[in-house]
Amino acid sequence: MRPTDSVGAQIDEIERTEEETEPESDESIAESSTPLALGREPRMRRAPDSDRQSAIHLAKNPAFHSRTKHIEVKYHFIRQLLKKKVLQLKKVPGERNPADMLTKASKMAPMEAASAAAMQAEQLRQDGNAYFKKDRFGAAIDAYTEAITLCPNVPIYWTNRALCHRKRNEWARVEEDCRRAIQLDHHSVKAHYMLGLALLQEKEFAEGVKELEKALDLGSGANPKGYMVEEIWQELARAKYLEWEHESTKRSSELQNLKLWCEEALKEKYALAGSQTEGFVDENTRKSNQNRLEALDRVFNKAAENDSPTEVPDYLCCKITLDIFRDPVITPCGITYERAVILEHLQKVGKFDPITRETLYPSQLVPNLALKETVRAYLDEHGWAYKMD
């Protein structure tokens, strides 16, 4: 249908504040509609367009719609043209319409949506890291929480948030986040480590030590010289010592009570013997009672030996640090060193044995598993040896 001259003149009165135009498309991904002129009037330079909702309201509502304020139109005239089919509503994808880009959510492919969410979550993680470095733990928690909302299956978001909770001594939340991270990644060193710390705070020593040992095994396998391995060992040693101290105090109390009960029983028996002889006790009875009391002391002192700190045997200690072994390795010369210590020596000082001065390379070090098991057995019986000076 050819528009009349008056119609063409009125079309010229349409002025758009947006200068750019988008290419047309036959796609119908988004249900957006844009009025396009069908007339052949040469003075019609471009067709009016708006966002998808505005186009619908232009066709139905004679009142000026607030969403079309970026277009100066005589809305009654547009409505008339639509009714007369001089103009038609043509579908244009929302992502190709500038007016829709910031006002409507376009339909995206699942992979594209997931990628966009992952990128946004990663940016939130970086924001959280920046807040954490500034000790703004509340803001960091908020950023990590938003990242978790977008991508809940990324374990590092959970461990990062747990670290913030740790800084705020919110141990119940640390435990919750770490357990979730472990569900997603069983080999997460940080998750096992912080879960162990949280359990220790709750006085669950056995479970806490178990998690710390798991973290130490995972960390030692990945990077034996890493800072986390040393930190985990320090916490594990402290936990083991606290566990021993707790159990030792309990055992000592039980032994003391039992010893007093036994001594009281011997004294009563001795007194009963005296009463039966009208207060006269022969020398043999007196000596026998004294021997029983001394034997009782020896038995209870022996029972308490493992809980009495002494010197750790030299063969269980590194020749360089003089500390008890954690991860002993043996050289071709038969000398055993702590792995991290000898590796540091070879890297910083030189490729030679610090005692024999013979050439030594890291590849020549062999784990001393027998000594490692001996150390473990010794520590199990002498928990006080975990105490770090």
Automatic annotation (TrEMBL):
Tell me the ranges holding the TPR repeats.
121-154, 189-222
Q: Which stretches are tagged as biased composition: Acidic residues?
A: 15-29
Per UniProt, the keywords (alphabetical) are:
Repeat, TPR repeat, Transferase, Ubl conjugation pathway
In its UniProt record, a GO molecular function of this protein is: protein-folding chaperone binding
Output the SMART domains linked to this UniProt entry.
TPR, Ubox
One of this protein's GO BP terms? proteasome-mediated ubiquitin-dependent protein catabolic process
Region annotation (Disordered) maps to 1-63
- Stated EC number for the protein is 2.3.2.27
Q: What is this protein called?
A: E3 ubiquitin-protein ligase CHIP
